[in-house]
Amino acid sequence: MNGQKKYLVKGEEIISSQIPRNVRIYDILFNIDVLLSTDEFFRQVLMLSEIQQEMGTAELHYKLGKYIAERERKLGIKNNSILATAYKCGIPVYTSSPGDSSIGLNIAEVVLGGGKIKIDVFLDVNETAAIVFNAKKNGGKTGVFVLGGGSPKNFILQTEPQLQEILKIPEKSHDYFIQITDARPDTGGLSGATPSEGVTWGKIDPGRLPDTVVAYVDSTIALPIITSYSMAKVKSRPLKRLFYKREAMLGSLYKEYLKVN
Questions:
Q1: Which of 26, 53, 164, 177 is most buried, judged by most C-beta within 10 A?
Q2: Rounded to two decimals, what is the model's pTM?
């Protein structure tokens, strides 16, 4: 990773003095200098004046993506960052738990030092619900593609309970559901929850339940296969660039909310 050596080690050997200081993410080890230099890059960006405001995570990631894209350009790197690609394509990127991350830790330090960054997580809830609402309102359908589970899984699925249960807007739930996971359903946790469980919360349209798919496989194996298949079978389409339509979609959702409440 990033030009660093890879090690095959047992648990106690990770902290051995015989091996350079390493950071472990699942079964990948890389030198801690990679992490520290990344932290320093983010801190420099996070201290910029344009970041010192209240915003949702979509706007935060868009601004971070802009500087990462510029970094890629200077280094002669192409298509290496999800955030940079999302920035170029106008794709909004949300996170359900911004404080539970390395970026969140760096934001906390900037704030501790007097920075004015504020993350509006409730704006994220309404914006994601607005995206779903506007898709359905304009005759489209919505689908959820989950890699893994946990908080991000619930965050994208809860857009329908937000519309139906909380905002009282009549809806028929998500039309499509695909999940790639290694979590078991018998433990009762969210990560392993099946689409039929999602029906009980209004997350999945019960009429589309037979079309839902759950594959118990490693995401790093499944995603490249699915991506390759999709690119081979589906023709390119114009980018929707939903990031730039967030305010309009939120306004549309607000009007509908006032109409039914």
A1: 177
A2: 0.86
